[in-house]
Amino acid sequence: MNETVLLIPSYQPNEETLAFLKVLTNAIxxxxxxxxxxxxxxxxxxxxEMETYGITVLSYAENxxxxxxxxxxMRYIVAHYPEASWLVTADSDGxxxxxxxxxxxxxxxxxxxxxxxxxxxxxxxxxxxxxxxxNRLTTLIYYVSTGLWLSDTQTGLRKFACHDVPELLEIxxxxxxxxMNQLLVLPTKGYHFSTLPITTVYEEKNxxxxxxxxxxxxxxxxxxxxxxxxxxxxxxxxxTLFFLLSLVLGESSxxxxxxxxxxxxxxxxxxxxxxxxxVFHSQTSIRHSFWKYGVLFIAQLLLSWLGVSWFARxxxxxxxxxxxxxxxxxxxxxxxxxxxxxAN
Length: 344
Hints:
Layout: E1 3-10, H1 15-27, E2 32-37, H2 44-52, E3 56-60, H3 66-80, E4 84-89, H4 98-106, E5 114-119, H5 129-146, E6 158-161, H6 165-169, H7 177-185, E7 192-197, H8 213-249, H9 253-279, H10 286-312, H11 318-341
Parallel strand pairs: 1-2, 1-4, 2-3, 5-7
Antiparallel strand pairs: 4-6, 5-6
Keywords: Membrane, Transmembrane, Transmembrane helix
Main location: membrane
Domain Glycosyltransferase 2-like: 9-135
């Protein structure tokens, strides 16, 4: 029998959480596993009440984070529900409605290799400012980093095959960054994403969420920002060298070609090493990735030279032309490197 198990990590639940879970257990027939992420003694009675609803509760003493709780739940489900084919994760802070959870459970998913995401729509007038800004920024950075557009990268309502749990357990992260790491790592392993529109809900302007803005924003954005820092720092080296060389050599077409070439070679070597070791943690050999990087490097070099030469006729500053052209090129290059050059 193909069965789905619902997994809900929970930290310091309240009476509203309890009421929702009671309704949920009466409305769905799939097993529910709740992970008590070190909520403490004052929450014990609430978790004991959940058990009377037929919910399996896993507990440990110290708060470890959402990613840790999800991994603990996955391990338990794989071990105790061998007949289960799929696993759905949902949040306990009221952001996922009963119809959305039911639809997620009912939606077909292949037995392996795909992640189904319940995505919300964030309208400025209807969304708390912190949540709107956080989601828009993350979506943009994620797109630049991967070339994939997801309107909701922070959704906790997800469905995947139990067969894929070992792969998911290998992904790093014990707090809120774990779910973002899933979105970064799985495409590099050939996984596909599909989306299911869900209701956007914020309980009391999202006060039920335990996402701590400074600490957890850093953890969520860290893998994405690593990508951008490597690209921006190499771009800074490139632009600085080009500007200094253009001051010395002048702005003729030949001088621009030489300045572009030398600046790009030096910044390219720096960028290759940064991307291979610090950004993509590539396991492919240097010989395998370097020739691909070389082809991309030459293409960028020519496009940069042609673009800067053309824009220099229209704009008063060569530096402005350089920044415009290379800003577009490094975004395209970033996507190509992730998908083709340094793909493990």
